[in-house]
Amino acid sequence: MMMIIFSAGGVDSVDSRQPTATTNMHPVPEPTAQPPTQPVRDDASISTSQPHVMIDAPAHHFSISIDLRSIKNVETTTNLNIYLRYLYPFFGSVSPILTHPPIEVRRHTEVLLPHSYCSFNLAATVQQLQETLLRVPLLVEVWHRDRMTKDQLLGVARVPLAGVLRAEKARIATPSSGGAEGTRQIHSERVTVETASDGQPTRLAEMHVVLGLEDYGPIRAQQVLMGSEMTSSSSMAPPPQHRRAPPPGPPPAQQAPPPDPRETAEYKAALELEMWKEQHVRDFENQLKEKELQHLKSLTEEWKRKDREREALIEKKLKEHTHLETQLRSAFADIEKRERQLAANEAEVMRLRGDMQREQERQMTEMREVSRRIKEDHIAQMEIEKSKVRLLEEEKHHLSQLLSQAQAQLQEKDREFQAYKDQIATKPEVRLQSDLSLLKLEKVELERKLESVTKSKLHYKQQWGRALKELARLKQREQTEAKARLKREQQELEHMRLRYLAAEEKEVVKSERQQLDEIKGELNRLKQQELDKEQKAQHRQTSPAQPPAPQPQDHKENVQPPGVGTMDPGVEAHVARLIEERDTLLRTGVYTHQDRIISELDRQIRESIARGQAV
């Protein structure tokens, strides 16, 4: 399969799988049709022994253009010098296509890429082109160039080329095909540049790509002559005609014959030069043809080698893909299993959390109730202590008043004693002696009162200190009693729970026992009825004419004296349960016979026994 590109120098034949590309990233001008240097004949008018290369009729002349317009929203913390690089072997480009120069990109900005347009001309069938564009995407690499280090690959964008096949077709003129019309399809899209970090693809940037596809129509079957000589059945120029010259007449006697121009030296030199020139042109053309054949052969071999390498690489990639798919499936199964286990664990954790929360709320409610009770008891105890303190304060105030009165009396007595001293000097000695004795007695009495007041004051101080110590001891004892009461209430709650469970079990046992008693009673009743029937039948057989004799003895045995009754089994079980609960509470050591709950149980036991005996 060949593609013919007409140029000013003649006809160039290029392999369709190695198309020409403008690698400098500039638009390529449309090929123009110019006449070849040698005429090309029809098949009927050309006969040659040189080799020919044929072009298949179904092949089309395509032109594919790729324009990497811009890049934006680059996820980076620093400025980057970015250039793009891609390679698509189907387009026949051996070297990668690069945008130049690198352009500086900042974060969250959009920049236009310079020299980013490139077009490729190739010849291929429509089916081959569609299959390749649908199957193989274009991988565009984003590189960062740094003066101090090597170029760094930032990410890769996968550009699907199938979108241009679905674009709307527009008619265009193809000057190279003699005024025929072709089609043009333009597709624009934005693709995501991704980078692989920790095995997970991460978005790096967004790139705007414009794809173009031009179809110039099928290529006509032509022949390219590889030789330089050809023979034609119909001559391009008429053959030389040899005219018969008339017989020469007798030459005139006076005129000399003109010299032949072909015999001149100039003519011979020009003829040799032209012959030498034609020979060298033929040799040069032969060398060009040989080189062309060699290049075509080397290109064909190179293409076959690359095709084999590509097939081997594809087979290897398929095996790797299968292996990775197997690993991915197993990993996915493990992940699903772990997710199910995690969901079960989360449900169990939520259930346990709910149970713990309910238990915590219950305990908090109990603690608040206990705290409230302790607080109320403490407040009551504080009121009692405050009343005691008020009494002590009143006693202190009373003693202070007594002390003040004693001091006032002492001062009064001192004044009287001083007045008495003054009177002594004027009174007789005997009276003075008697007055002195009286005063001594009063002094002793006053000293005794003063000592008693001092002792009472000291005693009050001691009582005040003891009251403070007693208050501290009462506070400590109240705290200890509160803790013990809290512990006792917790034990009581636990015993009540155990008692409730035991009561439920006893109720079940009691109900089963009642059912058994009812069944036994029913069986006894049925047995008694059967025995009565048998006795009646025997009695009828022995004495059918005699009436049955009364049985006063049996009736006497069944009749109980008034006031004496049997206890109901249900009441008896209830009494047994109450007694067992009372004994259980007494065995704990927390309760005594004076506690209210024990007294209440005793009362219920007595009432139940009384009701059972009454029945």
Automatic annotation (TrEMBL):
| Alphabetized SUPFAM superfamilies for the sequence | C2 domain (Calcium/lipid-binding domain, CaLB)
Region (Disordered): which ranges?
14-47, 173-200, 228-263, 530-569
Q: Which GO terms describe its cellular component?
A: centrosome
Cross-referenced PROSITE patterns:
C2
Residue ranges occupied by any C2 domain in the UniProt entry: 45-174
List, as start-end ranges, the regions of compositional bias called Polar residues.
16-25
Output the GO biological process annotations, alphabetical, semicolon-separated.
positive regulation of centriole elongation
Record-linked InterPro entries: C2_dom, C2_domain_sf, CEP120-like
Per UniProt, the ranges with Pro residues bias are: 28-38, 246-259
Q: Which PANTHER family match?
A: CENTROSOMAL PROTEIN OF 120 KDA (PTHR21574:SF0)
Name of the protein described by the UniProt record = C2 domain-containing protein
Q: Which organism is it from?
A: Patiria miniata
